[in-house]
Hints:
Layout: H1 9-13, E1 31-33, E2 36-43, E3 62-66, E4 86-93, E5 106-111, E6 114-115, E7 117-122, E8 125-131, E9 137-140, E10 151-158, E11 171-172, E12 180-181, E13 185-186, E14 190-195, E15 200-208, E16 213-220, E17 228-234, E18 252-259, E19 263-267, E20 284-290, E21 293-299, E22 304-308, E23 314-318, E24 321-322, E25 325-330, H2 344-356, E26 361-364, H3 371-380, E27 383-387, H4 397-409, H5 427-444, E28 450-454, E29 456-457, H6 465-475, E30 480-481, E31 484-485, E32 496-500, E33 514-520, E34 522-523, E35 539-540, H7 544-564, E36 567-573, H8 597-613
Parallel strand pairs: 11-12, 25-26, 25-36, 26-27, 27-28, 28-30, 29-31, 32-33, 33-36, 34-35
Antiparallel strand pairs: 1-14, 2-3, 2-4, 4-10, 5-9, 5-14, 6-13, 7-8, 7-10, 15-16, 16-19, 17-18, 17-20, 20-21, 22-23, 23-24
Helix pairs in contact: 2-3, 7-8
Amino acid sequence: MRLLETPWTQEALQGNTLTEYPRPGLVRREWADLNGMWNYVITDKRILPYQFYGEAPFPYDGQIRVPFSPEAPLSGVGKQLKPDETLWYAQDFRLPEEFFSPENRRLLLHFGAVDQICSVYINGKFAGYHKGGYLPFTLDITDLTAKDSLLRILVSVKDFSDTSYHSRGKQKLKPGGMFYTAQSGIWQTVWLEAVPTAYIENLRITVDYDKSSLHLKAFSSEKHSREKVTCQVFQPQLLDAAGVSEKNCECLITSQVFDADKTAALTIPSESKKPWSPESPWLYPVRIRYGEDEIFTYFAFRKCHVQKDKHGTPRFFLNNRPYFQSGVLDQGYWPDGLYTAPCDEAMIYDIRTMKSLGFNMLRKHTKIEPERWYFHCDRLGMLVWQDMVNGGTSYKSWFVTYLATLFSYLHVSVKDWHRYLLSRRDFAGRQEFLDELRAAVKALYNHPSIVTWVPFNEGWGQFSSKKVTKYLKALDPSRLVDSASGWFDQGCGDIKSLHYYFFKLRLPKDHRPLALTEFGGYSWRTEEHSACETTYGYQVFHSREALTDGYEKLMENTIFPAAAKGLSASIYTQLSDIEEEVNGILTYDRKEMKVNPLVVQKWNARLKKTHHHCL
């Protein structure tokens, strides 16, 4: 595979990227970034943690640039972690003196994500264990540290990739076609945070758009603390990439004092209400104090629901108005960082570029991004459909891809109780999926950009869709659920989801709004910007002009008429090329736009205009 550089590769190699505060939805002042060069070793036999702390230097393989996986070029390693191997990270850090003033501080160690299963040791002692390669976790390491010593962190990682039932998205040890290079280990920011003994662990923010009210619950680390929570809401703003801080907290709208671990309701005066939308992404800065703890966050007034238009056609509504969602499939892969964007600006580039083309939605496909990605969608104004990460044992492509495509065209319903055919016979795997679904909703709940959850895609590890959808709606009643994207629809959820790559598009009658949640996939391999010699796509073109012409005919002959007949959302495949799959709007290295942008802008504008006139 050819190594490609993005416009940000060299800056990342210098260690000048991914230094931003990693959790914009719950900001504190005192923190330390632990990204950078760590020691590493990959072993195929058991090593006890204390062996790393002997008098003689441990024989490491070398250094790895955290938070890039060892398989990613930016890591400086270039090795594939195999299922029977263990990846070890080790590094010493000197704690900032201010972390221990006053003396009653707690020290929290945060990991954005570690793929797939890891154990953490601090100063030679076990600190914690985490399973699940896509979700953040935090360890309180106060009792394992000493004020007069270095902080010694040791992390062990196992990754079974596609050889087990664990969630892995599109990763494959033998990549090809629509599946990509497997990656492992630490792939999101590692950081330290100093907090008081009683501090806010998490927030749950729910907005009632119609009543102009905010329901906020602050979860405390001390369940019996007598401290009160003070919440202050400030005038809505268009935030920059720095996020919320003291400078955003000047024009107070309302405030309230309430108990921790209980939900408080705050009403926003009508004259201060500014709805959030892709066209006007207004965000309200919030300052919260709890004893000695002070945090900053934000929220938005945004409502998403389904309603019938005057013709009786179910449609998507945003803030009580019909709204056509024109989106792009976004898988979040990079040639230099794989799962990890080379820098914050690279994530912003993808979002802004799609928005400049007239798209107002991104479907984050089988991956959960760092929180800063969702923050940028919040502040820049981009709707998000969030996939849960697929797992299960090896997929039977003859059934979930080829036969399912034919069934979908013929409108033949296939039940999802076939555990063998859908690769979900392991009870532990099904339970793990539900646990991770709950954790994902908790982690992402407060982001107004997310309007739809997508638990299953094309039958990959799908099971008990009706029960899973009911469970998901109970966890989050405020958002829509696309229960089964593509096929294996069980008639549940809020959306009738269709994938269209082959045959003729046939729109079924349904009580739910129709959404074309994948279509297109038109391919053109550009020699100087492609990672692989082989190509994968659904229709091949050989020039920018031919690709643009094909895109225009697809929109004019298929998508535009479908929108006139009731289609409420469309998602084009895809944002960028990825390895062999060269069907992106952008090249894999993000250096070229493969389709004429004026044509894309024209058809996005026509889709929205037609949708408005049909109501």
